[in-house]
């Protein structure tokens, strides 16, 4: 498959994911608002006796238990931003206890388990366990954090596998809004605000400038194509927006390269359908032999877009990507297809509305554990045989389209099997039995995934992989399900191939939007 074909398939899959007409016989949409937060921490982790790695953690914490609002669960990522380990990334799950002890003062005790690695910092299986004990001082909807963290890298050849160090950080409140349909209004109507978002698949290209070299010393002269997602939240008072994006390499000889971007943007209408767009982003990036130094870089961009309909637009922006202390500089282009819902944000924790102007768009979030059983007779990039099994931890979202079809996006990081820097991002189309087996609380499904992967010495060519999966899902409540799957994974132009086993948990929720 050529590099262009995964890009085309990717856009078509996400188009289907975002377009979701809702038809319902219910008469009310009931909305709940649950406490959540975005948590960031910065810390120095000892790589060797003479080297520290500056690591930034970004987490989304969710407080779902009404009787115990101190307990939180979440997902998060850690990445290098200082030193010379650009490309070190992990992703995993978090849990903790946030206890108020006096007015605006809190104690935070938590843990994070993840898979990942990279930049030769902690070679091995990729499993990381981080625990923390800290203090928070709350100021309105944010908080300042300080504390002590312990990072343990399991099964690594680095002797500095266990390190205790201080951290500093910030949190921002970010209420999670959920909705469900009913034949009656469960709550009072206490009013609402509308929040405008962009949810967009994006394709980004890096064209390195002259005389740029890879970490290995080879010339970096091939244009890289990255596939990813971006999320923008617009201010209700002006044209400014906040932006977050996640991308992975799909061609260009930099398999394993990944980046996380965040920043602010400005969008201004020139005509009824054409607008200017500019943004400034700061990123964590590296891997794939790309020399981003400590991993921190900047990406200013400017361009424009076309409004296709009330909910759809396309962007094309150009700019620069500049590593803060590495040798990477590139001309950058980005194309994005934006779905722009107006999401209801209720004034109180529980609110009900009629369905004449609003709808509940269904989504599912899930956590997966994936095991690869590699074929015999294949070898990694160093010529060594793979371990008998490779285990990965992952999470993602799934969007039902019809009663028998869904689209999904998911990411994984390795935690055992000696390929600790390996990670992948996949987008898939799923066909399932719908309500045919509902009396048994069961659903049979078949899914095809395609995406980008790399790192850890895995021989996946330019980084494009695909897999075919068959499985079953069992509902344990109206919103929770368990699933088990079997399948086959193959790199498009690499030698890696493996049988696949997946087990996981699904959680269904609704996004309340204006029609």
Structure, described:
The structure is a single chain. The chain is an all-beta fold and 515 residues long. Helices cover 3% and strands 66% of the residues. It has one helix at residues 4-18, and strands spanning 28-34, 36-48, 51-62, 71-82, 89-102, 105-117, 124-139, 142-156, 162-173, 176-182, 192-208, 224-234, 240-251, 258-269, 274-286, 296-307, 312-323, 329-339, 342-346, 350-354, 358-374, 390-402, 405-416, 423-432, 442-454, 464-475, 480-491, 497-514. It has an 8-stranded antiparallel barrel. An 8-stranded antiparallel beta barrel has the order 11-12-13-14-15-16-17-18. Strands 21-22-23-24-25-26-27-28 form an 8-stranded antiparallel beta barrel. A hairpin with a 5-residue loop joins strand 8 and strand 9 (162-173). It starts with a helix and ends with a strand. Residues 1-5 and 19-24 have low confidence and may be disordered.
Provide key terms for this protein.
515 residues, mainly beta, eight-stranded antiparallel β-barrel, 3% helix, 66% strand, disordered N terminus
Task: Describe the secondary structure blueprint for this structure.
Elements: H1 4-18, E1 28-34, E2 36-48, E3 51-62, E4 71-82, E5 89-102, E6 105-117, E7 124-139, E8 142-156, E9 162-173, E10 176-182, E11 192-208, E12 224-234, E13 240-251, E14 258-269, E15 274-286, E16 296-307, E17 312-323, E18 329-339, E19 342-346, E20 350-354, E21 358-374, E22 390-402, E23 405-416, E24 423-432, E25 442-454, E26 464-475, E27 480-491, E28 497-514
Antiparallel strand pairs: 1-10, 1-20, 2-3, 2-9, 3-4, 4-5, 5-6, 6-7, 7-8, 8-9, 11-12, 11-18, 11-19, 12-13, 13-14, 14-15, 15-16, 16-17, 17-18, 21-22, 21-28, 22-23, 23-24, 24-25, 25-26, 26-27, 27-28
């Amino acid at each position: 498959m050529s590099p262009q074909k995964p890009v085309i398939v990717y856009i078509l899959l996400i188009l289907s994911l975002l377009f979701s007409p809702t038809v319902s016989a219910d008469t009310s949409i009931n909305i709940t608002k649950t406490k959540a937060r975005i948590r960031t921490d910065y810390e120095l982790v000892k790589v060797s006796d003479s080297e520290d790695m500056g690591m930034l953690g970004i987490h989304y914490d969710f407080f779902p238990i009404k009787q115990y609002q101190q307990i939180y669960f979440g997902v998060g990522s850690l990445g290098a931003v200082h030193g010379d380990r650009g490309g070190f990334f992990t992703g995993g799950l978090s849990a903790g206890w946030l206890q108020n002890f006096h007015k605006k003062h809190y104690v935070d005790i938590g843990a994070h388990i993840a898979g990942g690695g990279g930049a030769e910092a902690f070679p091995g299986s990729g499993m990381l366990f981080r625990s923390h004990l800290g203090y928070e001082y709350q100021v309105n909807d944010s908080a300042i954090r300080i504390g002590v963290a312990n990072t343990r890298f399991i099964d690594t050849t680095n002797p500095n596998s266990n390190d205790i160090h201080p951290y500093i950080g910030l949190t921002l409140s970010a209420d999670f809004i959920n909705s469900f349909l009913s034949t009656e209004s469960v709550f009072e109507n206490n009013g609402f605000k509308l929040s405008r978002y962009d949810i967009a698949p994006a394709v980004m290209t890096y064209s390195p400038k002259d005389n740029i070299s890879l970490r290995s010393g080879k010339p970096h002269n091939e244009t890289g194509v990255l596939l990813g997602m971006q999320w923008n939240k617009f201010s209700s008072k002006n044209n400014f927006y906040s932006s977050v994006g996640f991308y992975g390499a799909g061609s260009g000889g930099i398999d394993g390269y990944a980046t996380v971007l965040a920043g602010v943007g400005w969008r201004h209408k020139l005509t009824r359908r054409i607008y200017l767009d500019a943004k400034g982003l700061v990123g964590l990036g590296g891997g794939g032999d790309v020399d981003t130094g400590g991993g921190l870089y900047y990406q200013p961009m400017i361009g424009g877009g076309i409004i296709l309909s009330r909910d759809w637009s396309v962007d094309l922006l150009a700019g620069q990507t500049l590593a803060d202390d590495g040798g990477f500089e590139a001309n950058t282009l980005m194309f994005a297809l934006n779905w722009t819902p107006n999401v209801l944000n209720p004034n109180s924790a529980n609110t009900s509305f009629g369905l004449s102007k609003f709808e509940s768009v269904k989504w599912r979030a899930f956590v997966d554990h994936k095991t690869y059983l590699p074929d015999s007779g294949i070898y990694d990039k160093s010529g060594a045989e793979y371990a008998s099994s490779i285990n990965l931890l992952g999470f993602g979202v799934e969007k039902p389209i019809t009663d028998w079809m869904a689209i999904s996006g998911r990411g994984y990081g390795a935690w055992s099997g000696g390929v600790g820097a390996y990670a992948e991002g996949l987008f898939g189309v799923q066909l399932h039995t719908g309500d045919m087996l509902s009396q048994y609380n069961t659903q049979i499904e078949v899914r095809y995934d395609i995406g980008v992967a790399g790192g850890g010495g895995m021989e996946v060519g330019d980084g494009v992989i695909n897999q075919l999966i068959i499985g079953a899902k069992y509902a344990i409540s109206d919103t929770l399900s368990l699933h088990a799957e079997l399948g086959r994974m193959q790199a498009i132009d690499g030698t890696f191939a493996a049988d696949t086993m997946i087990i996981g948990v699904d959680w269904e929720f609704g996004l309340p939007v204006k029609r």
